[in-house]
């Protein structure tokens, strides 16, 4: 997203706010951040860049921007209270005493803003943070003064009125007046604002208070948000063809899709664009008011058309191209490719593309704080190979998630299933990849090299060895580290373990040498290293990990969005990913959305 698209700071502000209202925090941040660089006099763009980054989960980077831009010097309530928001988000990533300490930090920041401005927004948040920190008396002492402050305020427009009732609902909940809390929340919901970010923030905070009080939070459904959908299903046969999804069933399936979307209020759609079910979902998403379509293709579009569209008829090719063009022409939508290469008969690319789409859907649901559901046009038959609807349904449900099925009645006897894809042995396999090196290594003296190898690299080797067969390839040269893994969770744990081990080394007279680690996941080629005479992995996705590593802050682990999506899909609970921003890779590799790995079990 380039600020060149906006002729003024006002235009950039409105564009960022529009994406934020729709719950697309990453795009909103990118607009506001680029706008702040282009229009540095705009304090509001800087504030929006930090707020949207925090709402996207990028707490650490948001705090850095907050300090760099000196937003703490802004006398307004919003900027002052934002410091409390960042401490609250940090608390949510921690457990035990560290979590309580961050809630206290947030409470103090919010209360400082309240004392300085007498604003009900900062006041109610201060009370909530004291409550979550276990200091109920300090929370209770704020409830009535903040309620009085809220009564003195004059709400501005529908959004202001919404926040007024939401504040009263939160104050009532803190005062154990559940009946009043529900009444005020119903009044807030009745206003009918379509600001998803505001509704998501309200739900998230009230849910925290309910959990602290040990009460059911089902009543918060009055603020129900549109859901995120991962869609999939069978390809359609050409007219007159026999198979699992026949042409005569199209109208009924399209009606079923429309009914499902209306029933669940789905607005955000992630999936592929094969003929039949995929394209029907895509067309429905594009027709949905303020719907978002996020297409994920496993490989290049030309090969995808030949493998998954054309055999159903040229009309489906036209519909494919129409959906793709519309997704590319509007920044509310997106098109993502699982790999930069072509198909080449690799069946493994299809489940990888589906896995990426699923993970991106889960990430979006986490950022928005809403439900994520899978919906499949499926005849219920089990998988017959390594790819297909049944395989993807099984993968989704392995994480305890829900799949809704739009039935395709099975023919009796079963119709022969046509497949236009060649059945070839896969040439590429999915691997998580770590690249690392040590900042300052090139500045070591020659006489320091043996000590570096025997101290630092020996410690690295011990950590790597502790993961045993979980690492299926390992290599090093100088200070470089190159590892591959079949499981993304093991890769993430290994990366954090390496950082912990290196950070505790006593280097003595050696210059401090912080470790940079970067991770990516994708299809790679199994090949032979002709120099070492051993197996190795090759391909563009190996290169992508290598190009991310130089952009990693020393002492941290940065990963790509596919890596973060894979962790989210696999529900790796002891590790979270914090959005850092969209930054160019090394050697002009192009922009990448970057995330920082954080252990949720660390005490700090």
Give your account of this protein's structure.
With 604 residues, this protein is of the alpha/beta class. It has three domains: 3-223, Serine Threonine Protein Phosphatase 5, Tetratricopeptide repeat (Alpha Horseshoe), CATH 1.25.40.10; 227-407, Rossmann fold, CATH 3.40.50; 428-599, Nucleotide cyclase, GGDEF domain (Alpha-Beta Plaits, 2-Layer Sandwich). The chain contains 21 helices and 14 strands. It has helices at residues 9-21, 25-38, 43-55, 59-68, 77-92, 96-117, 120-132, 136-152, 157-174, 178-190, 196-213, 250-264, 277-287, 301-308, 314-329, 349-368, 389-397, 449-466, 488-503, 540-548, 561-569; strands spanning 227-233, 266-271, 292-297, 334-337, 372-378, 403-407, 428-438, 471-477, 480-485, 515-529, 534-538, 557-560, 575-584, 591-599. The strands form two sheets. Strands 7, 8, 9, 10, 11, 12, 13 and 14 form an eight-stranded mixed beta sheet that branches. Strands 4-3-2-1-5-6 form a six-stranded parallel beta sheet, with helices on both faces. α4 runs antiparallel to α5, α9 packs parallel to α11 (196-213) and α18 (449-466) runs antiparallel to α19 (488-503). The radius of gyration is 26 Å and the shape is globular.
Bulk shape: globular
Catalogue the unreliable spans: 413-420
Q: Mind telling me which CATH architecture of the largest domain this is?
A: Alpha Horseshoe
Class of the largest domain, according to the CATH hierarchy? Mainly Alpha
Give the CATH superfamily of the largest domain.
Tetratricopeptide repeat domain
Number of domains: 3
* Structural class by sheet pairing and helices: alpha/beta
- The average pLDDT is 89
Compute the number of helices. 21
Q: Which range does the strand content fall in?
A: 15-25%
How far apart the termini lie comes to: 34 Å
